[in-house]
Design a protein that fits this description.
- The protein has 228 residues and is α+β, with helices and mostly antiparallel strands.
- It has 2 domains: 93 residues, Beta-lactamase Inhibitory Protein, Chain:B, domain 1 (2-Layer Sandwich), CATH 3.30.1450; 75 residues, Beta-lactamase Inhibitory Protein, Chain:B, domain 1 (2-Layer Sandwich), CATH 3.30.1450.10.
- The chain is built from 7 helices and 10 strands.
- The strands form 2 sheets. It has an 8-stranded antiparallel sheet with strand order 3-4-5-6-7-8-9-10.
- 21% of the residues are buried.
């Protein structure tokens, strides 16, 4: 009978006790990314909360359109495109380790959302928000980019399913995942304490979605919402 108190080592496949931090056979750390990198996780949570706060307080400040307005739908669409001052392409141009001045050259002046610490450990989070609520958030530590994140900069109908989600396995690289799911949308990138983490998302038109976290280029965790 299978012992429910035993699990397989993530590296060597040997039977080990559930809940141990390291495999007694090969020494592989059994904790997931968040357990191994608590500081990085905490920073990520802070950034996500800031993005949520920005998005929830966003929205256009335009006055209401009069009932007798003859504005055409094509004009409205054009206006929305023009309002997308901070685009996904600009987001991709922001590099880890860049200075605030280098980021400002891409996005313009940012709005400081939070600040902690002093000197080389000082951490500042700046935000850039479009009139439709889509936004970019960049975290600087010692005036170097350590995290960037974006929300709602692109529209996507990835047509991902639960079956495709189940095909994504830990250890795969992005190209392997892309072969299964198609091109993903980079929603967050972090470089801290020698570890690089990227979160890619795939959104369906009905709101269901999935995201995959890559740590140093390999799948570490995945999550899904209402896939069928």
């Amino acid at each position: 009978m299978e012992d429910k108190n035993l699990v397989k080592c993530r590296a060597c496949g040997a039977d080990i006790a559930k809940g141990v931090k390291k495999c007694p056979h090969c020494g592989k750390d059994q904790r997931n990314f968040f357990g191994r990198h608590k500081v990085l996780t905490a920073l990520g949570i802070i950034v996500i909360l800031i993005i949520i706060g920005i998005a929830s307080s966003g929205g256009s400040d335009d006055t209401a359109t009069p009932a007798n307005s003859t504005t055409k739908s094509t004009d409205t669409t054009k206006q929305k495109i023009e309002d997308k001052k901070y685009s996904y392409d600009k987001f991709l141009k922001i590099e880890m380790g860049a200075t605030y001045e280098q980021v400002k050259a891409i996005l313009g002046e940012g709005k400081e959302n939070s600040s902690t610490g002093e000197g080389d450990t000082k951490t500042i989070v700046y935000g850039w928000q479009n009139t439709d609520g889509s936004n970019i958030s960049v975290t600087f530590q010692g005036d170097k980019v350590t995290n960037k994140a974006q929300a709602m900069l692109k529209s996507m109908d990835a047509k991902v399913t639960m079956d495709k989600y189940n095909q994504v396995k830990n250890g795969m690289d992005y190209s392997q995942v892309k072969n299964i799911l198609g091109e993903g949308e980079l929603t967050s990138q972090t470089s801290l304490l020698g570890t690089k983490s990227e979160i890619y998302s795939w959104f369906n038109s009905n709101g269901s979605n999935l995201n995959v976290t890559f740590t140093n280029g390999a799948v570490d965790t995945k999550a899904q919402f209402q896939l069928k």
